[in-house]
Amino acid sequence: MQVDAFFSFTIAVILLLTGKIVTMNVLLLRKYAIPEPVVGGILCTAVVAAAYAFTGQQIVFELGMRDFLLLLFFAGIGLKADVRSLLAGGRPLAILLTLAIVFMLLQNFAGLGMASMFGLDPKAGLMVGSISLTGGIGTTLAWAPIFVERLGIPNAGELGVAANTVGLIAACVIGGPIAAFLMKRHRIVATHDTELDIGASFEKPQSRLDYFCVLWAILALNVSLIIGLSINSLIELSGFTIPAFVSCLMAGILIRNLMPYTVGATIQRLWPGVEDGLALISDLALGLFLTMALMGLQLWQLGGIFIFIACTLAVQIALTVLYTVAVVFRLMGRNYEAVVISAGFGGITLGSTATAIANMTAVTQQYGAAHRAFIIVPLVCGFFIDIVNAIIISAFVG
């Protein structure tokens, strides 16, 4: 059964509202900073899977709006990014990228080892390594035909999609508990800075947004998308490809930091809620994107490879948690910013950039802003890591 785009988007709104209401009223979910979209999204995934199990009917949502929401969200991050914070994040960015590269190697060795244990072609294990987990669904679909045609692994696509499905769900769940554990274990003091990059703080009184605040925010986001997509098209002409959301992030940063100061100051003076308008729209875009991403999961695709996927992903998730707590947190500075980055690291290595940011947003809503983390993590996730991952995968395949 095909659900058209309008009804799919309406269902996503209902699910996000459900997740918001449940999270507001269940202290345990807030304590462990479980992202609001996860509650409604996983509920929908479970219902769809149950419908297939009992009736054999596949429910497929038309999710064309999802990709636009991702672009909108990253344009909003760019528009709130101060270039001074970006420059200050140079060394931490290099450290985080190095940590992610090392972990991708661990992921692939773990995948090779688990495939060998189950009597499969060891290279099939790469599809449950950095290809599907760090790379995400796009990298999975790009590499699957190569594994089928050149390496003779007929179920490569199913392996990758199944691993990405389980990894995405796990990434949504582990970020908040990791942050809560680190905060308690190392007695990290929350900043309680209510000027969040994305979303609204639980402690901050809600600002009075008016017509012009929201309209200015929409205009700025649309201009960022226009410039960002133009940059992406120019880059593609050179034969080099980057994800479209990265170019929209770059466009937002350029607009925020190159716009004449007097113009920006005038807008802020006349409509001081513009920053809150950007935060609100970005938060909605992220929430709806992640909800729709979870709606699109088809758990029945796990099928006959369930045991292999379950065992391998259990190993990969355990590696992520141990590596984050023992290595990432320590090398990123053992402070509150390191806690927020650690919450997002599972999104980097198991889910997607949006998952990483959703986990970080949930943590900062609970404990306070972490401005540098919201610049470093998207750049590592969305730009550098895709390039390095392609090199690593090619080396392993070779």
From TrEMBL:
NCBIfam families: gltS. This is Sodium/glutamate symporter. It is found in: Cell inner membrane. The keyword Transmembrane applies. It comes from the Bacteria. GO terms for cellular component: plasma membrane. GO terms for biological process: L-glutamate transmembrane transport. Coiled coil: none annotated. Keywords: Amino-acid transport, Cell inner membrane, Cell membrane, Ion transport, Membrane, Sodium, Sodium transport, Symport, Transmembrane, Transmembrane helix, Transport. Catalyzes the sodium-dependent transport of glutamate. GO terms for molecular function: glutamate:sodium symporter activity. Pfam families: Glt_symporter. It comes from Ectorhizobium quercum. The chain crosses the membrane at residues 7-26, 38-56, 93-112, 124-147, 159-182, 211-231, 237-258, 278-299, 305-331, 338-361, 373-397.
